[in-house]
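Milestone M4 deliverable, item 7.
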Amino acid sequence: MPAGPVITNNTPLVALWVLGRLDLLRDLFGEVLIPQAVYNEFLAFDNSERQVAIDNSPWIRLVLLTNPQHPLAYTGLDQGEAEVLALAEELDSRLVIIDERRGRRYAKRMGFALTGTLGLLVLAKQVGLIPLVAPLIETLKNSGLHLESSLIDKVLEIVGEVKNT
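Output delivered:
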């Protein structure tokens, strides 16, 4: 993977927190950066539990934008997604982790390498950090994370955990 930081949006961060696996970010990338809006969004719910999780995860580092007006260029995105893309542009990111469709479209147009929550789980299984993806997907679905059935099927096929129908 090329040099440059890995920057994540809130949804993948929350998903890994739900799974109790923020450590996957460290084990896969060493360090992951988040802009201020993502930090704020992450702490907006379950504040004390999530604050402890962030405090105990020094590999997740808050980085402020050099140009705080830069996110305004990303119309139609929420503040977190816009700040992720602005930070990725400022720091010449090697990877952007984002789940939301609009944010992914922007990132692709900008030429960033891109993955999402399920892509992280695929990578984690491929490098031996987790034994199975399917139970983690079930946990995410049960926690309220919306995942497209076709995407789940594709991911399970990629990791060799095809569902029995």
